[in-house]
Sequence to fold (186 residues):
Amino acid sequence: MTQTHKRETFSGRRAFIFAAIGSAVGLGNIWRFPYVTYENGGGAFIIPYIVALLTAGIPLVFLDYALGHKFRASPPLAYRKLKTAFETFGWWQVMINVIIGLYYAVILGWAASYAYYSFRSAWGSNPVDFFLHEHIKMASDVALSLDFVDTVVGPLLAVWIITLLILSFGVQKAWRVLPLSSCQFW
Fold:
């Protein structure tokens, strides 16, 4: 006996647009872009960036949205329906999203703990030193460290619990939180 599971969708166009904007803008464009522009010659860097955006970035986003709209499936399944050999591209998308999710959770944990410390002014006169050396316990030599940083565990667990709660409620109920999270930097 097979059960059919109704796939959840966005409640409307507005919900989809907010999610798409949040996904497209991302932290990379907000945090990294100004730094990379400055380091690579300012205006001279913007020209190849715009060319890459117009020739690769935007067309690939439209392709992804079009495949999702046509096949109403996950990326691996949508690419497999397009052509079996393309399923790997869909799995790459899944893997990249998992890595980004892990990375962003840590950044959100840092930001939450830093906001908590800001209310108490715990860092004194040197916030950079406090955050890097006392809070996240960054070593003086740059190397891969597997040390346990107890001050980050609480905020990171809170971020993961909130994430799991939002995911467990589904797209429809998460919409109440979505506009705030996707456009918080605007």
